[in-house]
## 1
Amino acid sequence: MNRPRLLLADDHVLVTDALKSMLAPHYDVVGTASDGRSLLRAAETLKPDLIVVDIGMPHLNGLDATRQIKRLLPRAKVIVLTMNEDCDLVAEAFRAGASGYLLKHSAAQELMLAIQEVLKGASYLSPRITGGAVSALLRGGNAESEKARKLTPRQREVIQLLAEGHSMKEIADVLAISLRTVAAHKYRVMDMLAITTNAELYRYAVKHRIVSV
């Protein structure tokens, strides 16, 4: 019988190494990734059954990576493993397509159970954050968060890379698009959000968790 195929993504190698050691006896750990863009490439190539992903990763955050993976591989399951207990962020993770959300400090106790439940088609949410996350899901977000969700995946990619300090030329190279297209995305987003400076754009990216600090 084939074992479920797992892909692990975290920008700290020590974390992915520890997870791999814990999970390899029970699952086929087919790969690891240290940033969101390499995660997308690995997911497309390896076609895992389940992905364990952190939120705060460079180049493309874990939630935006999850959104793209679920369009690319709708049957793949995603579990978010993070330090962040923010209930609004939990709700956003499930809206992005995640089936599980748990905290890193409880991973040793909960991760195996979470993987089992998610592979069976259920959802898993760390008991520590259940109540507030349900309330956040029911609220659905305010007008500002709704506006943030209307940004296209490419616009969110450009915002994150700008907020991380990359030049528009570097972004064009990373995304394999023209410099003119990068500029068009940047200024379209700034116009949509009534933002006039790079500093405001950075603050927006942090506030809406497009980039981690």
Note: The CA atoms of residues 112 and 168 lie 42 Å apart.
## 2
Amino acid sequence: MCEKIDSSQFCELRRGCTVTGRKQDGADIIVEYTDRGGQSRSIRSAWLVGADGKRGIARKHFLEPTVGIRQVDSTYQYDETWVAANLKISLPTPLTHPTFPLWELGYTPDEVYDTF
């Protein structure tokens, strides 16, 4: 999987980093972090993906306090692999994605969303 990410022009995976801060700037998020060499850096993005686990820094320090996501122990123990994605998206339309093949098959923006 990492090879595909590394070869993509659309994303960049920064390994060995520690997130130290998060600021909202309009629709953008500014993430402050320390790289694996110990240097302080920041990145501006529309997305913050915390792939550090359900008890990781991204969730505990940035998602739980700002959007109320909580992981609590209860009667039913859950000890499996899981993904929590907190996404804000705009539906694709024939105007925003004019060459998307499903338009020719009669799909609506809602059907495209539901499919993917």
Note: The first strand starts at residue 18 and ends at 25.
